[in-house]
Amino acid sequence: MQLWESVEAEYRERTPTSRKLYREAGDHVPVGVASSYRAWDPHPLFIDKAQGVYLHDVDGNSYMDFDMNNGAGMSGHAHPAVTEAVTEQLQRGTLFTHPHKLLTEAATELKKRWDLVDKVRFTNSGTESTMHAIRIARAYSGKDKLLKIEGSYHGCHDYVLMSKSAPGRLSGHPKRPARVVESEGVPEKVAETVEIAPWNDLDAVEQIMHDNINEIGALIVEPIVMNVAMTQPHGDFLQGLRELCDEYGITYIFDEVKTGVKVAPGGAAEYYDVEPDLVAMAKSIGGNFPVGAIGGKEEVMERIDDGAAHYGTYNGNPLVLQALVTQLKDVLTEDAYEHVDALGERMVRGYEDVMEDEGIVGHVEHVNSQGSILFTDKRIENYRDWIDNIDYGLHENFWFSMLNQGVMPHPHSADQQWTISVQHTEEHIDETIEAFKNVAPKLAEEQQS
Ligand SMILES: Cc1ncc(COP(=O)(O)O)c(C=O)c1O
């Protein structure tokens, strides 16, 4: 508590203009931000510009950025190749609601990365990708209910705004989680079409499928639960889900909005060698432009031909497709993966060494270039473990102390992970670890108090 007072005071002192602009924005925009996740106490940073690996705020502070647009920025900010390609496209028109040749080029780039993908449709966000994937999945299986994993986030539409951050007291039995709706305005009748299952417990999932036989038509998973600090699947969990989906006639969706093109060129499907029926994508496929996609097997995607609706004025506009093609062809090259994955190892070693030297209880979960720091020695298996073991207060101290040192270690909130971009270098990682060395003794003291 004592630490927080000094950390918060320093943050306030460094960022008075952000505070002023936040207050002003609150008079015009609910919560003063464009997406409610962006608000935090005492006030969020207002950013003036973002270039390379740095965010520059309105008070003249710079932050080495590992938030990277909530994982969308694997290219780093304003990557020259993407900027150049998009600038050229700007002159040729940004939106025409007629087909154009970039459609095939962009779809082909995604198909090269996901073996299972025969056909692709484009969207404008991760939310749209999961929403449409769920509809196509239901159309394919002919059954209405969705099975969703407790703790996973799949965007902001009615079918998935549940059991993401519910308090333990509302969450029911760990093997049979209760459905906890986390937004007003979601119709009860819609919520009743969603069942909730625990992560990393195949028997429990099977029981729920069995109890809803002939009703559950779609299963959606984040193949790594990126919104529970990178909780990986254990053993053959993802493959086990594949087999259960086949047995129960359920369409299997990977939400690769955060893992896609990041944990491996072909996302988690490649990394874990598991084939879902559909993949929902967004974020880092688009070089910091708002583009999402749904990719899937021919027989599933052809439901769109046969009646499952998918429309959108901005879908696959030439501007974002140009960004996507450049990102996948010219930015996320084989060398780029080698580079960011090696930096990922360096970051993990750096954080873990400092924690050990300072006697901080904690560890890092990571897959290649993405990682989360956890102030607990418990290896987290699922959402219940997470809420029982995480020290939110200490994590806030860590996060704001790093901001005060000029590093944004990951998006705000203990359940998030860093993104290392292709523009980061070894020096950037070493600077980050130096910053952590500066704040670690006080964190250790706070943890032990
Ligand atoms: C796994 C996952 N799915 C879907 C989404 C929603 O994506 P968007 O914010 O682009 O709507 C997110 C956003 O963070 C996400 O992490």
TrEMBL record:
GO terms for molecular function: glutamate-1-semialdehyde 2,1-aminomutase activity; transaminase activity. It comes from the Archaea. InterPro entries: Aminotrans_3, PyrdxlP-dep_Trfase, PyrdxlP-dep_Trfase_major, PyrdxlP-dep_Trfase_small. The keyword Transferase applies. Pfam families: Aminotran_3 (PF00202). The keyword Transferase applies. Its cofactor is pyridoxal 5'-phosphate. It catalyses: (S)-4-amino-5-oxopentanoate = 5-aminolevulinate. Keywords: Aminotransferase, Isomerase, Pyridoxal phosphate, Transferase. Belongs to the class-III pyridoxal-phosphate-dependent aminotransferase family. This is Glutamate-1-semialdehyde 2,1-aminomutase. It comes from Natribaculum luteum.
